[in-house]
């Protein structure tokens, strides 16, 4: 959401989002338009006020939430109030900070979005014919001009020069090979072609040979920088002038009562108390606007330094190419193409500098629109016509510094030097010698945080009144916060009891969310815990709870610990019963501690084989060898030729191949039977 919420958990962010949505909804019902981001920022800061009793990290009662939403809606109902306008300006600047990476990513995404259709057509074409290749060739020319801003794609001269440059890099055969590549390789090849063609065109522009439509990048950068610098300087001058006028007008409308710690309003006829508070809020808005404009000027100086470095390198590379091609009609590509690629990279870097200047101007214009000062100028004009404007007196810094040293002599024994001390300018600005105080003061003005530049006592008694302090008088460091004062009177009163006044100062900060953001002290305010002191604090502040962890040694000395020891006798009895039960139990197929590492028992089967059935091998016994021819003749006599024929055996078939062992046994038995019958007869 914002930098101040970077450490918030997702649950806390959801709480803030839900409360902000409720505030936006309630404001909408009453006809006020409020952005969710402004509401969210208000929720984060308003919950610091203990009077609201809201916690973002714990559960809240419904009545507390309703009261908090009602309080915020009341603050946001007036869309033209200084509070809302300041928060809107802060949200805008936080969301549009001039971060080079973010800016370049934004503009590059815009260019890629416009060139995406062409890139898609170049990447997705497959096996194009000659006519289609010619069309893709033209699309590549247009794509290069669009991505590197080398001229209008509708200009015929621009396309002609790009065509000549592209043909010097990619031949017809190379183009055919280009379409054979896969998408990833094709994209990488296209990027290389782009860089070389861009470098060729920029070099031709520098050589004065051609360069239709290509901008003079050096002149454009110089012109843009001067215009941006002039616009920021004029804006800053008008803001500072209005701030001084506002501070003097406000000083005219009040008198400081140090004894009662308050300011008494002295209002001319026709000027209301609401006008004083409105001008006070507009002073905060102007101070925040001034801070942002100075931030833009600081970024502008960084961009100028980058421009000078990039232009110097750009000129160096171009001169190197001129030396290579000056007296030659043909140059090897491996010698000059890498330099053309370097030219295209530097060209893109210079374009990025232009994008940064454009973004700075946009932010400056939007900040001016958000800081609408018409009503403020009108009220100041009415006051100037009815009262004599007094200027804020400037007390010498030596008087304030002497008073602070005197007051700290009595306070140091109680607080100690570690929590309360005087800090001089030379202590903060070590890069400048102690004699050159004017330079040190300028550096401190530029680098000091806003909280150190305004008087905390006037902010306290004026309920958010920001009057510049005399920082050249030095600072008081308390609770790691540097404080300076506008006068010795304010310093004396604040240091008379710095603990209670600093607590009140923090309480007033909690009620002004725009000042917390302006001072950039959210972490300090949110973590500051008010405790009982030697005096009773006027306003009760809710306690802040923080989760913390402490790690200590469990046993500082060595020890012997029995892991099986137990103090409970019932645990011992339960173990005895368990052992007795186990003695009478039997386990089946159990896996024990000893066998845990073995393979689980599974059903083992033989894998099926594709072989035929295996049987015992055929064998035979050794018997008496008989004459086959005799056996065949005897069989034929016994069986007869008709029986042989009935068996389907041809008479011409050799009987050696027909009769087997059973037939021979049958013939032998028949013959023995006939012999026995003959003997019997």
Automatic annotation (TrEMBL):
Q: Where in the cell is it found?
A: Cytoplasm, Cytoskeleton, Cilium axoneme
Query: What's a Pfam family this protein contains?
Result: FAP206
Presence of the UniProt keyword Cytoplasm in the record:
yes
Tell me which UniProt keywords the record has, alphabetically.
Cell projection, Cilium, Cilium biogenesis/degradation, Cytoplasm, Cytoskeleton
A GO biological process this protein is involved in? cell projection organization
Q: Name one GO cellular component term.
A: axoneme
Explain the purpose of this protein. Essential for sperm motility and is involved in the regulation of the beating frequency of motile cilia on the epithelial cells of the respiratory tract. Required for the establishment of radial spokes in sperm flagella.
Q: Which family does it belong to?
A: Belongs to the CFAP206 family.
Name under which the protein is recorded: Cilia- and flagella-associated protein 206
Tell me what organism the protein belongs to. Answer: Hermetia illucens (Black soldier fly)
């Amino acid at each position: 959401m914002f930098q101040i919420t970077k450490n918030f958990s997702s649950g806390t962010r959801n709480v803030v989002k839900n409360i902000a949505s409720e505030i936006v909804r309630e404001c909408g019902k009453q006809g006020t338009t409020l952005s969710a981001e402004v509401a969210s920022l208000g929720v984060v800061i308003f919950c610091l006020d203990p009077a609201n009793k809201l916690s973002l990290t714990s559960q809240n009662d419904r009545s507390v939430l309703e009261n908090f939403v009602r309080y915020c809606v009341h603050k946001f109902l007036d869309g033209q109030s200084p509070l809302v306008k300041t928060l809107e300006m802060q949200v805008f600047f936080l969301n549009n900070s001039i971060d080079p990476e973010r800016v370049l990513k934004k503009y590059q995404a815009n260019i890629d979005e416009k060139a995406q259709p062409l890139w898609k057509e170049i990447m997705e074409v497959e096996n194009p014919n000659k006519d289609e290749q010619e069309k893709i060739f033209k699309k590549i020319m247009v794509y290069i001009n669009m991505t590197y801003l080398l001229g209008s794609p509708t200009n015929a001269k621009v396309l002609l020069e790009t065509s000549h440059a592209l043909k010097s890099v990619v031949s017809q055969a190379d183009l055919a090979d280009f379409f054979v590549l896969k998408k990833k390789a094709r994209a990488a090849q296209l990027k290389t072609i782009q860089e070389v063609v861009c470098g060729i065109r920029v070099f031709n522009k520098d050589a004065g040979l051609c360069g239709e439509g290509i901008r003079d990048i050096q002149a454009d950068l110089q012109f843009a920088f001067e215009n941006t610098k002039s616009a920021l300087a004029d804006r800053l001058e008008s803001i500072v002038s209005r701030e001084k006028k506002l501070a003097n007008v406000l000083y005219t409308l009040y008198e400081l009562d140090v004894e009662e710690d308050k300011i008494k309003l002295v209002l001319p006829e026709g000027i209301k108390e609401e006008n004083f508070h409105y001008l006070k809020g507009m002073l905060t808005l102007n101070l925040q606007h001034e801070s942002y404009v100075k931030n833009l000027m600081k970024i502008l100086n960084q961009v100028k330094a980058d421009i000078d470095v990039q232009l110097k390198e750009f000129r160096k590379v171009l001169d190197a190419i001129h030396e290579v091609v000056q007296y030659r009609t043909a140059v090897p590509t491996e010698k000059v193409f890498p330099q053309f690629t370097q030219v295209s990279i530097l060209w893109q870097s210079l374009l990025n500098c232009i994008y940064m200047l454009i973004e700075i101007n946009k932010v400056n214009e939007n900040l001016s629109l958000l800081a609408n000062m018409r009503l403020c100028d009108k009220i100041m004009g009415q006051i100037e016509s009815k009262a004599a404007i007094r200027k804020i007196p400037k007390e010498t810094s030596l008087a304030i510094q002497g008073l602070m040293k005197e007051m700290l002599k009595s306070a140091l024994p109680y607080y100690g030097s570690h929590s309360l001390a005087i800090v001089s300018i030379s202590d903060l600005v070590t890069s400048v010698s102690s004699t050159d105080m004017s330079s040190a003061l300028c550096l401190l003005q530029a680098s000091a945080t806003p909280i150190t530049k305004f008087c905390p006592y006037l902010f306290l008694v004026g309920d958010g009144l920001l009057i510049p302090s005399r920082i050249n008088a030095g600072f008081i460091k308390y609770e790691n916060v540097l404080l300076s004062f506008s006068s010795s009177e304010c310093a004396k009163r604040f240091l008379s009891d710095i603990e209670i006044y600093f607590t009140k100062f923090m309480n007033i900060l909690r009620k002004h969310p725009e000042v917390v953001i302006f001072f950039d002290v959210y972490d300090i305010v949110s973590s500051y815990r008010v405790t009982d002191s030697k005096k009773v604090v006027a306003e009760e502040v809710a306690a802040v709870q923080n989760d913390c962890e402490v790690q200590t040694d469990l046993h500082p000395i060595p020890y012997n610990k029995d892991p099986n020891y137990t103090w409970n006798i019932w645990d011992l009895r339960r173990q005895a019963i368990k052992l007795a039960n186990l003695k009478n139990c039997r386990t089946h197929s159990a896996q024990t501690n000893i066998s845990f590492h073995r393979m689980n028992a599974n059903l083992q089967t033989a894998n099926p084989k594709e072989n035929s059935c295996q049987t015992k091998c055929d064998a035979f016994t050794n018997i008496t060898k008989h004459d086959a021819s005799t056996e065949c003749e005897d069989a034929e006599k016994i069986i007869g030729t008709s029986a042989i024929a009935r068996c389907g055996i041809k008479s011409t078939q050799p009987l050696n191949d027909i009769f087997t062992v059973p037939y021979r046994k049958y013939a032998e038995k028949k013959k023995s039977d006939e012999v026995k019958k003959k003997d019997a007869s």
